[in-house]
């Protein structure tokens, strides 16, 4: 925190008034179910975005990304999306929504630091929006509830920036709890905490480092959402429902004459993945890690074969992991076409696991980044002390 205070003071010649910090997230189960009103299990990670802010006497907004020394500027009356503003758009979107909600906003000096790698499915943009919303809320004393904070952060990404995302990442980055996962029902937004007491096991994240996947992922996600809507249209001919959450595997089987093969596979993934999330919740509560590991494996098979959002690099990492002694389960996580895998393994084989994955770089030319998932607290104000 001292480093962030110093960077802010050096950039703006004044000490920050507020610093907020929000964690990245990891999807453990429930991939591509959120926009079908399904269920997910997510947890926070021990990588965070921290934002220092101080008020100005004018309406100027100055944003400083300390990690890369990038600077962006605008004003409160000119809160518009600009492609060239990239990361700053997420904060501009938060302010735009807060103004729409009736909250008075003045000029701000903002400094951002983060160790969450963007574009790999660990919720970097959600952490940015959530941390900034919390900092502004604290500075002005708006008294936002968690749901209002989540609303502003989610609006920024889904509407102002225009990305095809749901509320999931912002939700968990806000309410996450140390050493816990969150089971979230996307239809009702009911949730419960799941203690991640893994005994002698660890959850390992591997960043495949596949380059240039963000634009591909975004385009494919748009297509998958359209296909999910198409699925519902087909199934509606026999049974009314508003999303794939309303259908079962039997409904899909009964619609074989109506459903094109690709649509059938998409239906089967979403329906099966939602059920896996419910079953995985039960397995984690019972500390049945072997069952949970098998669900990870089945989830990857479905993402690869039914939803078709994997890629050779992710498939290799998952297959190599699953072949190892002491690995209970592994799958891709996030939107797909690159990004990360999540693997549950026994702590005793962690060093061997790292060694076995060294072959990846020789085959694909990208060095994988391997780190342990340690669930951290959700968004919090770290300065001033409370």
TrEMBL record:
InterPro entries: Galactokinase, GalKase_N, GHMP_kinase_C_dom, GHMP_kinase_C_sf, GHMP_kinase_N_dom, Mevalonate/galactokinase, Ribosomal_Su5_D2-typ_SF, Ribsml_uS5_D2-typ_fold_subgr. Its EC number is 2.7.1.6. The keyword Metal-binding applies. Coiled coil: none annotated. Residues 282-355 form the GHMP kinase C-terminal domain. Residues 89-176 form the GHMP kinase N-terminal domain. This is Galactokinase. It comes from Candidatus Thalassospirochaeta sargassi. The gene is galK.
